[in-house]
Amino acid sequence: NAGVMQNPRHLVRRRGQEARLRCSPMKGHSHVYWYRQLPEEGLKFMVYLQKENIIDESGMPKERFSAEFPKEGPSILRIQQVVRGDSAAYFCASSPPTGVETQYFGPGTRLLVL
Amino acid sequence: TQLLEQSPQFLSIQEGENLTVYCNSSSVFSSLQWYRQEPGEGPVLLVTVVTGGEVKKLKRLTFQFGDARKDSSLHITAAQPGDTGLYLCAGVYNTDKLIFGTGTRLQVFP
C-alpha cells in the first residue's frame, strides 16, 4: 500500500519561472492538504482540497499560488513567477473521509529559487 | 490566529536521559497530534489525543493532553540516538485543518 507520493523531490527554479508540485494521495483518500515549511520552522497550512473542490484556502498567498485536485490524476500546487521567498519545503498530506486528524504526509518537495 | 507554542525549541541530551517537550496554546483543540520529522522527510504521526486528561504511551514515549485541551506534553524515558528528530505538535482547528506548533529539535548523543 503506497503512501503519499510527491514529485519532484527537489525542484530548482529561477526567479520568474513557474513551479508545479504534484501530490498523489494514499489509495482510498479523497482529501488532500498542502503545507509549507521554512527552515527550522513548523508546517504552515496552505490549502485543503477534495476531488474537484477547494474546501479551505485560507493559508494560500493571495497572488501567484493556486491548487487543484482534479477528478483524475494528482493534486497540483502551482506557483507562478517564483521569488526567492518561495524557497521552502512543500508537503502534501492526505486523509480518508473520516477525519482531518488522520493525515499522512508525503516526503515533500524542496523548492529552491535562485 | 491560533498558535501552538512548543518548548524547548532545541534540546541536546545524552543517551539514557529523560526529557519532556511541551505544547501550549490559549485555544481549545478538539484533538491534538504529535509528529516526528527526520531530515529530508515528511512528518510521521506518533499519536492522537482526544480527551482532556488523556494519557497515551508508545513504548518509551508518554503523551498527555491537558484537562482543558489547550496543552499537551511528550515525555521520553531513557532517550536513544534513534529518537533524534524534530517533534511537532498539531491541533485540529475549525474541523478542517491542522495547526502546527513551532517544533522542538531533539538531538540525542550516544
Which features would summarize this protein structure in a list?
heterodimer; A: about 110 residues; mainly beta; seven-stranded mixed β-sheet; about 0% helix; B: about 110 residues; six-stranded mixed β-sheet; five-stranded antiparallel β-sheet; 11 strands; about 55% strand; globular
Structure description:
The complex is a heterodimer of chains A (114) and B (110). The radius of gyration of chain A is 13 Å and the shape is globular. Chain A has strands at residues 5-7, 10-13, 19-24, 31-37, 43-50, 53-56, 65-68, 75-79, 88-95, 104-105, 109-113. By secondary structure, chain A is an all-beta fold. The mean pLDDT of chain A is 92. In chain A, a hairpin with an 8-residue loop joins strand 9 (88-95) and strand 10. Helices cover 0% and strands 49% of the residues of chain A. In chain B, the strands form two sheets. In chain B, strands 2, 4, 5, 9, 10 and 11 form a six-stranded mixed β-sheet that branches. Chain B has a five-stranded antiparallel β-sheet with strand order 1-3-8-7-6, with no helix packed on it. In chain B, a hairpin with a 3-residue loop joins strand 9 and strand 10. In chain B, 34% of the residues are buried. At the A-B interface, strand 5 and strand 10 of A face strand 5, strand 9 and strand 10 of B.
Low-confidence spans of chain A? none
- Given as residue ranges, the uncertain stretches of chain B (5+ residues, pLDDT < 50) are none
Report how far the terminal alpha carbons of chain A are from each other: 37 Å
Radius of gyration of chain A: 13 Å
Morphology of chain A: globular
In what range is the share of β-strand residues of chain B?
Answer: over 45%
Helical/strand content category of chain A: mainly beta
Main beta-sheet strand count, sense and barrel state of chain A: 7 strands, mixed
* Protein chain pair with the most extensive contact, residues per chain: A-B, 25 and 26 residues
Average pLDDT for all residues of chain A: 92
General shape of chain B: globular
C-alpha Rg of chain B (nearest Å): 13 Å
The description of the largest β-sheet of chain B is: 6 strands, mixed
By DSSP, the count of extended strands of chain A is 11
Strand proportion of chain A, as a percent range, falls in over 45%
Helical segment count of chain B: 0
